[in-house]
Specification:
By secondary structure, the chain is of the alpha+beta class. The chain is 37% helix and 25% strand. The protein contains 4 helices and 6 strands, in the order ααβββαβββα. It has a 6-stranded antiparallel β-sheet, with helices on both faces. It binds methionine sulfoxide. The site of methionine sulfoxide (SME) has 14 residues, from strand 1, helix 3 and strand 6. The site of methionine sulfoxide has 14 residues, from strand 1, helix 3 and strand 6.
Amino acid sequence: MQVASKMDEVRNQVIELAQAAPTAHELMHRMVRLLRERVLKYNWVGFYLLEPGAQPPMLVLGAFEGAMTPHVRIPLNQGICGAAASSGQTVVVDDVSNDPRYLACSLETRSEIVVPVFAHGKVVGELDIDSHFPAAFTREHQDLVQCCAMLVGKKLETSGP
Ligand code: SME
């Protein structure tokens, strides 16, 4: 019998959350808590959502677990967060000290991943995870975080915010 990997277990738990959560808002709150509890290298886990109608466009901090960040509102031309939202692409930074775009949240952060959340074909927000470990976001972590962002996008489409 094959033993499920830790990543498979977490993925299954996240899928269960998505099925049970009544709204995308509730799903995001439950998801950040689960990810931070279950994956020890995820030291800060949070969602940023695009503010509806804001000009210029602005990312606003939503559900998060970890230390309070000074970056509650991030314009799209700033940070790793802005880069992911404006390009619609996952951004993985193995060493934040080498990336001039990086906006510091904690002095202990060494690596970061930001995955855009799409609803109805448009970027509506993103899932941001920081780690105290360098190069924490290997391929299997990227797959997990992309699955999480996809589930939130689908929930937004089917159940609303
Ligand atoms: N590091 C992010 C800012 C958000 S905090 O990490 C929570 C960035 O460079 O955009």
